[in-house]
Write a structure and sequence with these properties.
Elements (H helix, E strand, L loop, with lengths): L2 E7 L32 E3 L9 E6 L7 E4 L10 E4 L26 E4 L7 E3 L10 E2 L11 E5 L2 E10 L8 E5 L3 E7 L3 E9 L6 E5 L5 E5 L1 E13 L6 E2 L3 E12 L4 E7 L2 E7 L5 E8 L7 E10 L7 E5 L3 E3 L1 E2 L7 E2 L4 E3 L3 E8 L9 E6 L2 E2 L3 E5 L2 E9 L6 E11 L2 E12 L5 E4 L3 E3 L3 E7 L5 E4 L10 E7 L7 E11 L2 E18 L8 E5 L3 E3 L5 E3 L3 E6 L11 E3 L6 E9 L2 E12 L2 H49 L10 H6 L1
Parallel strand pairs: 9-16, 17-25, 27-34, 36-41, 42-48
Antiparallel strand pairs: 1-3, 1-10, 2-23, 4-5, 6-10, 7-8, 7-15, 10-13, 11-14, 12-13, 14-15, 16-18, 18-21, 19-20, 19-22, 22-23, 22-24, 26-28, 28-32, 29-30, 29-33, 31-32, 33-34, 35-37, 37-39, 38-40, 40-41, 41-44, 43-46, 45-47, 47-48
C-alpha cells in the first residue's frame, strides 16, 4: 500500500505526541523554558524540537508513483521535503471507466480524501444523492486517520486533499475552502497539498471535489488552536491583613485556550488553596482564605494549568509572581496611660503609655502627643507588648486642659487613648514681714498672699474664711525672736488639692536676761564630785557672761566639767553685757567638804522624818476611828430611846450621890 503523509508543524515551540512516518517520535531535549515577570505568567512546558513534525498515514490513489513536495514555510525544515507518494490504494476498488454505472450494477461514484487530521472525505455522487448514499474511501486495515489536529496559536499546518472515483476524467476540480491563509504547495492527478499559515482560531477547513459528470464530494478536518495565558497575575494583596479574618485572593487570567482545559490554582507557598475552572475573558478567579499569625510573611501566588495530555501533549503550567502577605493583631483594648493627671508649668515629667497583645509587635509604631505637639517618644518592646515614654515640659501658653494622646499604629489600623492633662501655673505664695528684724515692743505686720485661683492659710492668724490673702499684726517680744511664720497656699487642680508653703523668720532684738531657771542663785555641791556649772544669759544680740567672786575677783568656771573643790565655795557676781544693755546676778556656791558624816546625818534626818510622819499618820487615823465609833454608839442609843416609853428616873442612891 502506498500512502500520502501529512505533516503538522509549530512556529511557537509546540510539542506533542504522534507517530512520525509510522515510528515513535525522537527523544526530546531535557531543557525547559521558564520565564517570570510581574504581571506575566511563568510558562513551564516540556522540551521540544522546533523541527518536530507530526504525521498521519492517509490512503493514496491507485496508479500513482511517489514524488517529493517541499514544505514551504515550515520552521526548522530547511531543505527538507515531505514525501507524497502516489500508488494503488489498498482497499479501493479501481474504476474501469469514467462512465457512470447504475446502482444495481455496483457503480461507485467519485471519492474525495482530505488528509491533515480529518477522516477520509465523504463524496456524494449526484446519481446517488437522492437516496443519500455515501461513498467512503477505503482505509488500511487497523488504521484510523486522525479526525482533529491541535496546534499552538500562530502555527502552520499542512492539509492534503485527495480523491478517487473520477481521476480518469478530465476537468475535475479539487480545492480547500477555509478563511485561513492558505498556500498551495503541490498537486497531482488526484490530490492537492495546502499549507494553512498563522492559524489563530479554531477552524474546520473543508476539502471539496467536483467531477465533470456532476459528482461532488466534501471532507472536513477540525483544527483546535491552543495558547498559553498572556497574563496570569495575582491581584495585589492588602498591605496588612488582620489575623482571623478572610482574605479574598483574586487571580487575573488573560488569554489561554482552550478554556475547557484551563484551570486556575491559588497557592500558599506550594500548598493548594483553591482549584477552579477559568471562565470568561478576561477571567478572575476568587477564593476566600482565612489567615492567621502563621500566614505572616507567607507567599501567595496563582498558577494556571493547561492540560493537553488527552491530546497527546503535556500539562503546561503558568505561574504568577508571588506576593507576600503581612498579617497583624491589634487588640481592641486601648493603650494604658501611666502619667499624672496634672502638670505644672515649667516642670518636667515623664509621660508613658503601654499596650499588650500585639503581633508582630516590632512593626507597631507609637504616636505620643500633647495637643498638636508631638512628643519624642522612646519605645521598648517585650514579647507581645510595648511601652512608650517621653519627657514633657509645658509652658504658660499651654495652661488649661490639654488632650494627651497615645496612638498605637499597626498594619492599617490604630488604637488610641486620650486623657485630659491639666496644665496649671501655681507659684509659691508670697509671705512678707514689714520688718524682718525689730526691737522688742515693735509692731510687726505679716502678710500671706497667693496666686489667683488659690487660697492661703497663715500660721497663728485668727480663723477667718479662706481667701487669697491673710494678715497678722503682733507686738514683738523676746519670745518672738526666731519665730517662723508659715504661709500655705492650696489650689484645686482637676479635683485634687495641691499645696505649696513658704516660711519667714522674725528676728527680735532685746537686752540680756539672767533668769533663775537658767542661772540658779544657790549651788550646793559635794567636794570631790564631778559637775558642770551652768549659767545661761539670754539676749539678742547674745550677751557676754562673766562670773567673778566678790572676795578675790576669781572667775567661776561656767560650762566646763570639773572636780568640785572646797576652794570653789563663795559668792559670785555674774554679769551679762550686750549692746542692748547689761544685767547681773549673785550666785552662792557651797561645797560640802565632810561628806561621810553629812551622809549619816542626812540618813538619820530622813529616817526620823519618816518615823515622825508615820506616827502622826497613825495618831490621826486612830483618832478618826474613835470618833466614828463614838458617833455610831450615840446614834444607836438614840434609836433605842425612841423605840421604848420613857419611865421616871429613880432617885439616885446615897452611894451614887457620894460617887458624884
Amino acid at each position: 500500500m502506498e500512502s500520502v503523509t501529512t505533516r503538522l508543524s509549530s512556529r511557537v515551540g509546540w510539542s506533542g505526541v504522534g507517530r512520525v512516518n509510522g515510528e515513535s517520535p525522537s527523544p526530546r531535549s531535557e531543557e525547559e523554558t521558564s520565564t517570570v515577570a510581574r504581571g506575566s505568567p511563568r510558562t513551564t512546558s516540556l522540551p521540544h524540537r522546533s523541527s518536530l513534525l507530526h504525521s498521519w498515514e492517509i490512503p493514496g490513489l491507485p496508479g500513482q508513483r511517489g514524488r517529493t513536495t517541499p514544505l514551504a514555510g515550515h520552521p526548522g525544515s530547511g531543505n527538507a521535503r515531505a514525501p507524497v507518494r502516489e500508488g494503488k490504494a489498498r482497499g479501493f476498488r479501481e474504476s474501469g471507466s469514467a462512465a457512470p454505472r447504475s446502482r444495481a450494477s455496483g457503480y461507485k461514484g467519485p471519492r474525495a480524501l482530505c488528509a491533515p487530521v480529518a477522516p477520509s472525505p465523504r463524496c456524494r455522487h449526484p446519481r446517488s444523492a437522492g437516496n443519500g448514499s455515501t461513498a467512503r474511501a477505503a482505509r488500511p486495515a487497523g488504521h484510523r486517520p486522525p479526525r482533529e489536529a491541535i496546534l499552538p496559536r500562530g502555527a502552520s499546518v499542512l492539509v492534503n486533499c485527495s480523491f478517487s472515483g473520477c481521476e480518469q476524467q478530465s476537468g475535475w476540480k479539487l480545492g480547500l475552502e477555509t478563511q485561513l491563509l492558505k498556500v498551495t504547495l503541490g498537486s497531482g492527478s488526484n490530490w492537492q497539498l495546502f499549507e494553512l499559515r498563522g492559524v489563530l482560531e479554531d477552524s474546520s477547513p473543508m476539502c471539496f471535489l467536483t467531477c465533470p459528470d456532476g459528482g461532488q464530494g466534501t471532507a472536513t478536518v477540525s483544527i483546535t488552536v491552543y495558547s498559553f495565558p498572556e497574563q496570569v497575575e495575582l491581584r495585589p494583596l492588602p498591605p496588612w491583613q488582620p489575623a482571623g479574618q478572610d482574605l479574598a485572593l483574586r487571580c487575573l487570567v488573560v488569554g489561554g485556550k482552550p478554556r475547557d482545559r484551563l484551570t486556575a490554582v491559588l497557592l500558599r507557598g506550594q500548598d493548594q488553596l483553591s482549584r477552579q475552572p477559568v471562565v470568561g475573558e478576561p477571567a478572575e478567579v476568587t477564593a476566600p482564605v482565612r489567615v492567621g499569625r502563621a500566614d505572616h510573611l507567607a507567599n501567595f501566588s496563582c498558577r494556571t494549568e493547561l492540560d493537553l495530555r488527552s491530546q497527546g501533549l503535556e500539562l503546561f503550567l503558568n505561574t504568577s509572581a508571588a506576593r507576600q502577605l503581612r498579617t497583624f493583631v491589634l487588640p481592641e483594648t486601648p493603650p494604658q496611660f501611666a502619667t499624672p493627671g496634672a502638670l505644672e508649668v515649667g516642670t518636667r515629667r515623664r509621660v508613658a503609655c503601654s499596650l499588650d497583645g500585639l503581633f508582630p509587635v516590632s512593626e507597631a509604631k507609637v504616636h505620643l502627643a500633647l495637643g498638636d505637639r508631638t512628643l519624642n517618644a522612646t519605645v521598648t518592646y517585650q514579647n507581645d507588648s510595648l511601652s512608650a515614654s517621653a519627657w514633657l515640659e509645658v509652658t504658660a501658653q499651654e495652661e488649661g486642659d490639654r488632650p494627651l494622646v497615645c496612638a498605637v499604629l499597626l498594619g492599617n489600623r490604630s488604637s488610641e487613648s486620650r486623657r485630659n492633662l491639666a496644665v496649671y501655673s501655681f507659684p509659691e505664695p508670697i509671705l512678707t514681714l514689714n520688718e524682718t528684724e525689730v526691737s522688742e515692743g515693735d509692731l510687726v505686720m505679716v502678710t500671706c498672699e497667693a496666686h489667683p485661683g488659690a487660697f492661703v492659710t497663715l500660721s497663728d492668724a485668727p480663723a477667718e474664711p479662706l481667701s487669697q490673702k491673710s494678715q497678722l499684726l503682733l507686738n514683738a517680744s523676746a519670745e518672738d525672736n526666731g519665730r517662723r511664720f508659715s504661709c500655705s497656699a492650696a489650689l484645686d487642680v482637676a479635683g485634687q488639692l495641691l499645696y505649696k508653703n513658704r516660711t519667714r523668720q522674725l528676728t527680735v532684738l532685746y537686752g540680756p536676761r539672767l533668769d533663775e531657771s537658767d542661772c540658779p542663785g544657790n549651788w550646793t555641791l559635794p567636794e570631790g564630785s564631778q559637775h558642770t556649772l551652768r549659767c545661761q544669759a539670754w539676749g539678742n544680740p547674745p550677751p557676754q557672761l562673766r562670773c567673778h567672786r566678790k572676795s578675790d575677783n576669781s572667775s567661776l568656771p561656767i560650762g566646763s566639767l570639773r572636780s568640785i573643790k572646797r576652794e570653789l565655795a563663795g559668792t559670785y557676781l555674774c554679769r551679762a553685757v550686750s549692746p542692748r544693755g547689761e544685767v547681773s546676778r549673785e550666785v552662792l556656791v557651797t561645797v560640802l567638804h565632810d561628806q561621810g558624816h553629812m551622809i549619816i546625818v542626812i540618813v538619820l534626818v530622813v529616817a526620823g522624818a519618816i518615823v515622825g510622819s508615820a506616827a502622826v499618820t497613825a495618831y490621826f487615823y486612830n483618832r478618826q476611828r474613835k470618833i466614828r465609833k463614838y458617833k455610831l454608839q450615840k446614834a444607836a442609843e438614840a434609836l433605842l430611846l425612841k423605840s421604848k416609853p420613857q419611865l421616871p428616873e429613880p432617885a439616885p442612891s446615897a452611894q451614887q450621890q457620894q460617887q458624884c
